[in-house]
C-alpha cells in the first residue's frame, strides 16, 4: 500500500494533534522535572504514604470487584433486553460519569448518612458507613461502575446472538448460555472495563473526601494524601503524584494491550469448541 493510501487524512491534522499531545504531555513532564529525585524513595515510602497507597489498592480492588458483579448483569440486560424505559436506564448509567465528584459524594452521604435515605436503617443494623473504609469503597464503586457497563454493553452490541441461539436450540438453558457462550466472548471487553474501573477507583478524590473524610489508615487514599501533602510537604506531593501517574500509565497499557484482538479470536475459537463438544458433537459441552 502506498504512503498516500496509508494516510487517509489531511496533513494539517498533525498540527492540532500535536498540540493535543503537548497539552497532555507537558503537565506530566512538569511533574517529572519537579520531583526531588535524591529523596524520591524516602518520600514515597514514608509511613503515611505507604498507608495511603495500601488503602488505595485494597479499596480499589474491592470496588472493582463490586463493579464487575453489578456491572456485568447491567450490561447484559441493557444490551440484550427489551423493556420500557430502556433508554432512560442507559442514560442513568452515565450519570456518575458526568456528575461532579463532590455532588456524587453528597448524594452518597444523603443516602447512607445518619439522616439519609438508608441511614436510620443502617444504624439500627449497627452499620456506620460515612467516614469509614466502607464509605471509600462505596464512593469508588459509584464513580467506577459505568466503565464496566459501557465497555461490556458496547462489546455485546457488536457480537451477534447467533451462538447464543444455537446453544439454546441444542438444549442449553439461558444461564448456561450466559456463562459458557456470552461471557467468554466478552473476555477482552471485560478485562478492559475492569482495568479502567480499577484505574478510576484508584484516582477517586472528590466523592471520597465528601462521604468518607480523610482519616489516616481508614479513609485517606493516595489522592487524599497528595492533597494533604501539597499543603504540608510539596516535594512529597509531587513524588506521590508521579507514583500515581506511573500506576495510571501501567493500567492504561494493560487496558489497551495489542493482544486484545488476538484474545478475542481465541475466545471465539473456544465458543466454537464449546458448541461442537469434545468429540465434534455439536452442543454436547454446552448442555453438559
From TrEMBL:
It holds the Pfam family BPD_transp_1. The chain crosses the membrane at residues 12-35, 55-79, 91-113, 133-156, 177-199, 236-255. Residues 53-255 form the ABC transmembrane type-1 domain. InterPro entries: MetI-like (IPR000515), MetI-like_sf (IPR035906), ModB_ABC (IPR011867), NifC_ABC_porter (IPR006469), Sulph_transpt2 (IPR005667). Gene3D superfamilies: MetI-like (1.10.3720.10). Keywords: Cell membrane, Membrane, Molybdenum, Sulfate transport, Transmembrane, Transmembrane helix, Transport. The complex is composed of two ATP-binding proteins (CysA), two transmembrane proteins (CysT and CysW) and a solute-binding protein (CysP). This is Molybdenum transport system permease. The lineage of its organism: Bacteria, Bacillati, Actinomycetota, Actinomycetes, Micrococcales.
Amino acid at each position: 500500500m502506498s504512503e498516500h493510501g496509508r494516510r487517509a487524512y489531511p496533513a494539517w491534522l498533525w498540527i492540532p494533534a500535536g498540540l493535543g499531545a503537548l497539552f497532555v504531555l507537558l503537565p506530566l513532564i512538569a511533574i517529572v522535572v519537579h520531583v526531588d529525585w535524591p529523596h524520591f524513595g524516602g518520600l514515597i515510602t514514608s509511613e503515611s504514604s505507604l498507608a495511603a497507597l495500601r488503602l488505595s489498592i485494597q479499596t480499589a480492588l474491592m470496588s472493582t470487584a463490586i463493579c464487575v458483579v453489578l456491572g456485568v448483569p447491567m450490561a447484559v440486560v441493557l444490551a440484550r433486553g427489551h423493556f420500557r424505559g430502556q433508554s432512560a436506564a442507559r442514560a442513568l448509567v452515565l450519570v456518575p460519569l458526568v456528575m461532579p465528584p463532590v455532588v456524587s459524594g453528597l448524594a452518597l452521604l444523603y443516602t447512607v448518612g445518619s439522616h439519609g435515605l438508608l441511614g436510620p436503617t443502617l444504624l439500627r443494623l449497627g452499620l456506620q458507613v460515612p467516614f469509614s473504609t466502607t464509605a471509600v469503597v462505596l464512593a469508588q464503586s459509584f464513580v467506577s461502575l459505568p466503565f464496566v457497563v459501557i465497555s461490556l454493553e458496547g462489546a455485546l452490541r457488536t457480537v451477534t446472538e447467533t451462538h447464543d441461539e444455537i446453544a439454546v436450540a441444542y438444549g442449553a438453558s439461558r444461564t448456561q448460555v450466559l456463562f459458557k457462550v456470552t461471557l467468554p466472548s466478552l473476555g477482552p471487553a471485560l478485562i478492559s472495563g475492569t482495568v479502567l474501573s480499577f484505574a478510576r477507583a484508584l484516582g477517586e478524590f472528590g466523592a471520597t473526601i465528601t462521604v468518607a473524610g480523610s482519616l489516616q489508615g481508614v479513609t485517606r487514599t493516595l489522592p487524599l494524601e497528595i492533597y494533604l501533602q501539597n499543603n504540608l510537604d510539596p516535594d512529597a506531593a509531587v513524588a506521590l503524584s508521579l507514583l500515581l501517574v506511573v500506576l495510571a500509565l501501567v493500567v492504561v497499557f494493560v487496558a489497551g494491550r495489542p493482544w486484545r484482538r488476538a484474545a478475542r479470536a481465541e475466545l471465539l475459537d473456544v465458543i466454537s469448541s464449546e458448541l461442537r463438544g469434545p468429540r465434534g458433537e455439536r452442543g454436547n459441552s454446552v448442555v453438559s
